[in-house]
Design goal:
By secondary structure, this protein is an alpha+beta fold. It has 3 helices and 3 strands; from the N terminus they run βαββαα. Strands 1-2-3 form a 3-stranded antiparallel sheet. The model has no long low-confidence stretch (mean pLDDT 80).
């Protein structure tokens, strides 16, 4: 997930602090095989950013791309890595950079 995106995006002038902002959430799924990023965005008024919302995005992604199966097995292992700043980028970081550049 990307950091919450304020809408509209304003500079730090007085209008930034006076205007009510709506925050949007952005989940990215990056297909390393296709070298393609997919984004699922929603605003804070629609839903939060919990497990239910992430699950809904995954289900929608599977349906849209005709990913089928009777069962999904997700295996997760926590491993903490502290890379040197500026030396490591995940594929989704590049996708988020495109969004930031566009905004």
């Amino acid at each position: 997930m990307q950091q919450a995106l304020p809408t509209p995006k304003l500079s730090t002038d007085p209008a930034f602090y006076k205007k009510k902002k709506l925050f949007c959430y952005n989940l990215s799924i990056h297909s390393c095989l296709e070298k393609q990023g997919y984004f699922y965005m929603w605003d804070e008024g629609t839903a939060g950013r919990g497990a239910d919302e992430i699950g809904s995005c995954l289900l929608k992604h599977f349906q849209r791309h005709d990913i089928q199966g009777e069962k999904l097995i997700a295996i997760s292992k926590l491993s903490y890595t502290f890379p040197q700043v500026g030396h490591v980028m995940l594929p989704s970081d590049c996708d988020f950079g495109v969004v930031e550049k566009y905004v």
